[in-house]
Write a structure and sequence with these properties.
Blueprint lengths: L3 E7 L6 H10 L20 H12 L5 H16 L3 E8 L2 H5 L4 H19 L2 E9 L4 H13 L5 E7 L11 H9 L3 E6 L5 H10 L4 E4 L7 H10 L2 E4 L1 H6 L11 H6 L4 E3 L11 H6 L5 H14 L4 H11 L2
Parallel strand pairs: 1-2, 2-3, 3-4, 4-5, 5-6, 6-7, 7-8
The structure holds adenine and zinc ion (ZN).
The site of zinc ion has 6 residues, from strand 1.
Length: 319
Amino acid sequence: MIPKVELHCHLEGSIAPALARELAARNGLDLPSGLFGADGHYVWRDFWSFLAAYDRVCTVLRTPRDFGDVIYSYLAGVAAEGAVYVEMFCSPERPAALGISYAAWLEALAEGIDRAHREFGIVGRIIIICIRHLGPERALAMAEAMVAEPHPYVVGFGMGGDEAKFTPADFAPAYRLAHDKGYGCTVHAGEVVGPESVWAAIDCLPVTRIGHGVRSADDTALMAELARRGTVLEVCPGSNVALGLYPDRASHPLHRLIAAGVPVTLNSDDPPFFHTTLGNEYDKADLDDAALRHIARTAVDASFADEATKQRLLKEIGS
Ligand code: ADE
Ligand code: ZN
């Protein structure tokens, strides 16, 4: 099995339907209406209803332990597919709304990460993400909380949410703070909005990675610029096809990006929503073993792990 590395997976987006049911039962909650279809899967139609379904899943989370169990459960499952390192996008917005302190939330996540490491050897780390459609003030507050209470497992700062809202420049103060304090930075761009969104992100934000970024394939000059800078794309083909960006994997630009010299990684985004897993993304990429190992190595290089961890992972992946 090829050792795999994941740089783009959302904490709450990793909750499998069975875990959502378990957490709701444990917390004495009814499952939100309309969450599941007759087939037992999450129901949504397009990007915006997907974001709404994501919010509905979040309502089953109530305690710090719930968040810890979610990250443990994800790491355990992906370790069984050969993953050796995962950076999880974790938004402090949900625990904050529940009255859970930032420190208590992080402690629970760290417990889940430690448990998965003890049991499966997988290394988990946290990227704090803000939510774009909630606006720049909230993003700056998130970054300020992150730098005020550093934690060894919190290695980066990012942003998801509705890419059509605000502009990257609006979030420059939050990113500048995170970057100045030594956190690696990434941002979702070039997913639901075209190449201009990626240009704005690389021009205005101190990012070394772009979440998705696949719409860069519509712009030859942009692909050349990403290759020149060595900006790494966190590509999630299953997510892109599920959300209707491309009709099928054959028309997905993964191979065109690689051919243009853009560094790419493979990721699952919100796996149960998109009927995928990290292992499935590696399996369906239509790349040989050497190319997949190269992608895993690219992910280690682009990760926000410390240098010793990177060297150990690179050795484990081989060439
Ligand atoms: N949050 C969770 N998944 C996301 C995605 N694919 N794009 C933007 N925000 C997200
Ligand atoms: Zn994402």
